[in-house]
Design brief:
It contains 13 helices and 12 strands. Helix 4 (65-68) links the parallel strand 3 and strand 4. It is 38% helix and 17% strand. The chain has a 12-stranded mixed beta sheet with strand order 3-4-2-1-5-12-11-6-7-10-8-9, with helices on both faces. By secondary structure, it is of the alpha/beta class. The protein folds into 2 domains: 1-154 and 292-339, Isopropylmalate Dehydrogenase, CATH 3.40.718; 156-283, Isopropylmalate Dehydrogenase. It has helices spanning 16-25, 27-30, 41-50, 65-68, 93-109, 123-128, 136-148, 177-180, 183-199, 226-240, 257-260, 271-282, 317-329; strands at 4-8, 35-39, 57-59, 73-77, 113-117, 155-159, 164-167, 207-211, 244-249, 265-268, 287-291, 297-300.
Length: 339
């Protein structure tokens, strides 16, 4: 029996349950790959009824999901009761969301799932429960390291057909970015990006454009020293490693159509430098992909949208794209992580 994709619960009070239900209802019209959700089945039944879209839900194990998918949404029990109302996370929210992620990683590492697609979480809700990781990506890396006994260096990529971007630093105050940025970090991020573009995305000799930190990539040191002292040596090292890298490039001229045609991914030095262009170009269908793991993980590039949870008004485009990309990338098995 073919493997299905594991879809995590996400924040129960958010739009994740709504989107999961909507996607199963449209599975035939959209020609979606088989998936199952790791959740509280009774909770999903209540949410489906609330949104006016009751659907058949069937308890399942991961390996049974593909056979069930055509007639019912397969639900693997998360082992937690969820009681949150739409838009109102409660004490059950964080435990259910965390347990679902943990099970999804266990399934994919154990060969029971083809990939993991994570529904959006509310990090502030998790933090109040004692969650210590910055977010999904870091938690996935920790779970994988614990299970495999190998250190993991996850890299976040935001992907769309128009543009793929990788922020070298992520959730840092802008004032802390220059101190956090170093040549080794840029080189390691570039290596992992090139490795997964080749082995997951099947791009031979991927081209990587590397943005400068400062305006005009530092203008030869006239606008800050970091591009000359930190970024350029990283580009040179990546080239010596056989990677088709170039930069540092002025970020303000990297994202128009002619420029995008010259590279397969853009390495950016900080969060907004990467996310502003992709969210401008592909707000509804960009996908968050975690590189550097021994399995495929994707996620919609949006949050929990508490204000519209339970209304069946959430746009499923990004979750659809995340499922399709996960199925595409998961075709190749046993991909070693980048050295």
């Amino acid at each position: 029996m073919p493997q299905s994709i594991a879809l995590t619960f996400g924040e129960p009070a958010g739009i994740g349950p709504d989107l999961t239900i909507a996607l199963w209802r449209r599975r035939v019209a959209l020609d979606l790959p088989s998936f199952y959700v790791i959740a509280d089945r009774k909770f999903l039944a209540r949410r489906a009824k609330l949104t006016g879209a009751p659907i058949p839900l069937e308890a399942s194990e991961p390996r049974e999901a593909a056979a069930i998918f055509a007639s019912a949404l397969p639900v693997v029990d998360v082992g937690m009761t969820a009681t949150a109302a739409p838009g109102l996370p409660d004490a059950t929210s964080a435990p259910a969301a965390i347990a679902s992620i943990r099970l999804g990683v266990r399934h994919v590492l154990g060969g029971e799932a083809a990939a993991v697609v994570t529904n959006p979480i509310a990090k502030n809700v998790l933090y109040r429960s004692g969650f210590t990781e910055p977010g999904h990506t870091e938690y996935l890396a920790r779970l994988t390291a614990e299970a495999t006994g190998r250190p993991m260096r996850p890299v976040m990529m935001l992907w769309s057909p128009q543009l793929a971007v990788v922020p070298v630093t992520i959730h840092l105050p802008l004032a802390q970015v220059p101190e956090a940025l170093d040549t080794d970090l840029i080189v390691e991020t570039g290596q992992i990006t090139a490795h997964d573009l080749t082995n997951r995305f099947r791009i031979a000799n991927p081209r990587i454009a590397i943005a400068g930190l400062n305006p005009h990539a530092g203008e030869d040191g006239a606008i800050g020293a970091e591009d000359h002292a930190t970024v350029r040596p990283a580009v040179d090292r990546l080239k010596r490693l056989g990677i088709a890298a170039r930069g540092p490039l002025p970020a303000d001229t990297m994202f128009h159509p002619a420029a995008r045609a010259t590279y397969d991914a853009a390495l950016c030095m900080y969060h907004d430098q990467a996310l502003i262009p992709i969210k401008t170009l592909a707000f509804d269908h960009a996908v968050n992909v975690t590189l550097g793991l021994p399995f495929v993980r994707t996620s919609p590039d949006h949050g929990t949208a508490f204000d519209i949870a339970g209304t069946d008004r959430a746009d499923p485009s990004s979750l659809i794209a995340a499922l399709r990309l996960a199925a595409r990338l998961a075709v190749r098995k046993e991909i070693a992580v980048a050295p």
